[in-house]
Design goal:
Layout: E1 2-7, E2 12-19, E3 23-31, H1 43-65, E4 74-80, H2 84-101, E5 105-109, H3 110-116, E6 129-134, E7 139-146, E8 149-155, H4 161-171, H5 179-186, H6 211-223, H7 228-257, E9 261-265, H8 272-285, E10 288-290, H9 294-297, H10 301-313
Parallel strand pairs: 1-4, 4-5, 6-9, 9-10
Antiparallel strand pairs: 1-2, 2-3, 6-7, 7-8
The protein binds 5'-O-[(R)-(carboxyoxy)(hydroxy)phosphoryl]adenosine and zinc ion.
5'-O-[(R)-(carboxyoxy)(hydroxy)phosphoryl]adenosine is lined by residues 10, 135-137, 162, 165-166, 177, 179-180, 183, 266-268, 270-271, 298-299.
Length: 331
């Protein structure tokens, strides 16, 4: 089955075509730059930019794939969670194409897209596995039993890991989203000059909390002269605290579930320090570790096309012609 996937949940317009027999046929992405000056995503601007970009992206994805629209057998779009206005653009276009082409459509859960992204790689995991989902809006440990069967066993009680990266980056004077820039700055930092708390590791359980860490960083930053080296040293200590916390909880969750496979997904999964540290943990434990490629850690259309294809193959699909989105939607 050949499925066109559309992602518009936040500030990335992603379009891709996935074929259940031949794999990923084409994948295009537009990352909105308009939010940088505002220090965060401005929902109205995000919606307008999706409107501008989505049709040209669908056209270029079809051209890249060499396919005729008649060869598309289903359309998947992100139904939620995300920004309501942004989701509506993808949903409206997805349902309209389904109607016009006479093919089924399916609304995909954005987090399911992230969780299944490693299946786009040459060596995908097999079910069941433990997933660490770390993005701008989510920090969760999830038991993934099969497509559609997910058990959240750990969650953040306040900020998400990516949100903590973004807020710390902002505090150190970087643009939005600052996660990747902060990680680059951390590489130039001296480890050990600062030390930040590893939140909630002394308590039993698998939940996370990152708002206290953010406060600790802001107190330290306020008490120092923020020259470039000091910023780098703070970034380094911050990254170590986040990575340590995530790693300790993964270790605990692997013990608790007895699973021998770990998948890391979501934008913070692109962090090289996290990748190194989790690789070492998994080697020590004899656990197989799976990451999507860097461009499939952050938001993209390919993961939605893949997840939508699985759902359509399971016989799911939408009836009627209503367009509905789920801005808040638990996994
Ligand atoms: O999955 P994603 O693209 O969007 C959401 O669904 O939220 O994740 C975006 C998040 C942002 O917070 C961004 O700063 C963070 O992932 N991020 C990183 C890195 N690259 C992106 N955080 C740390 N290190 C990175 N290399
Ligand atoms: Zn995402």
């Amino acid at each position: 089955m050949r499925v066109l996937g559309i992602e518009t949940s936040c500030d990335e317009t992603g379009v891709a075509i996935y074929d259940s027999a031949a794999g990923l046929l084409a994948d295009t992405l537009y990352t909105q730059a308009i939010h940088a000056d505002f220090g965060g995503v401005v929902p109205e601007l995000a919606s307008r930019d999706h409107v501008r970009k989505i049709i040209p992206l669908i056209q270029s994805t079809l051209i890249k794939s060499g396919l005729n629209p008649k060869e598309i057998q289903g359309v998947a779009y992100t139904k939620g969670p995300g920004l309501a206005g942004a989701l509506l653009i993808g949903a409206m276009v997805g349902r309209t194409l389904g109607f016009a082409w006479g093919v089924p459509t399916v609304g995909v859960h954005h987090l399911e897209g992230h969780l299944l992204a490693p299946f786009l790689e040459p060596h995908p995991p097999v079910f069941p596995f433990l997933a660490l989902l770390v993005s701008g809006g989510h920090t969760e440990l999830i038991k993934v039993i099969r497509v559609g069967e997910y058990q959240v066993i750990g969650d953040t009680v306040d900020d998400a890991a990516g949100e903590a990266f973004d807020k710390t980056a902002k505090l150190l004077g970087m643009g939005y989203p600052g996660g990747a820039a902060l990680a680059a700055l951390a590489k130039r930092g001296v480890s050990g000059r600062f030390h930040f708390p590893r939140p909630m590791i002394d308590r039993p359980g698998l939940d996370f909390s990152f708002s206290g860490l953010k406060t600790a960083v802001s107190h330290t930053a306020a008490a120092c002269a923020l020259d470039e080296q000091t910023k780098a040293d703070i970034a380094c200590a911050f990254e170590e605290a986040v990575v340590d916390t995530l790693t300790i909880k993964c270790d605990r969750a692997l013990s608790q579930t007895g699973f021998s496979r770990l998948v890391v997904a979501g934008g913070v999964g692109a962090n090289s320090k996290l990748r190194e540290t989790l690789t070492a943990l998994c080697q020590k434990r004899g656990v197989d570790l799976f990451f999507p490629r860097l461009s499939f850690c952050t938001d993209n259309g390919a993961m939605i096309a893949y997840a939508g294809c699985q759902r359509l193959l399971m016989g799911e699909g939408e009836e009627g012609l209503d367009v509905e989105v789920m801005p808040r939607w638990p996994l």
